[in-house]
Amino acid sequence: MIWVPIVLGLFKIGVLGAAMFFAIKSHYDGEKQQEREREAGGQIAGAENVAVTSKLD
Fold it and tell me: pLDDT tens for residues 27-42?
């Protein structure tokens, strides 16, 4: 019966490792998405300014 704590310990390590992997991956992907949104937002704002100035002329 010594194998039960060994198996459960390995399972626990595997689950915690997977959770840490997905937490880090989610954080990294979120940063990349925010950076893309910032870049896209700047491009849209720049295009709106050009459209407004061209209407004034």
Answer: 999 999 998 888 887 7
User: What is the distance, to the nearest Å, from the Cα of residue 50 to the centroid of all Cα atoms in its chain?
Assistant: 32
Alpha helix stretches (DSSP H) within 1-57: 3-56
Q: How many CB atoms lie within 10 A of CB 53?
A: 9
Euclidean distance between CA atoms 13 and 40, whole angstroms = 40
Using alpha carbons, list the distances in angstroms from residue 8 to 4, 18, 26, 55.
6, 15, 27, 69
pTM over 0.90: no
Distances (CA, A) of 51 to 1, 30, 41: 75, 31, 15
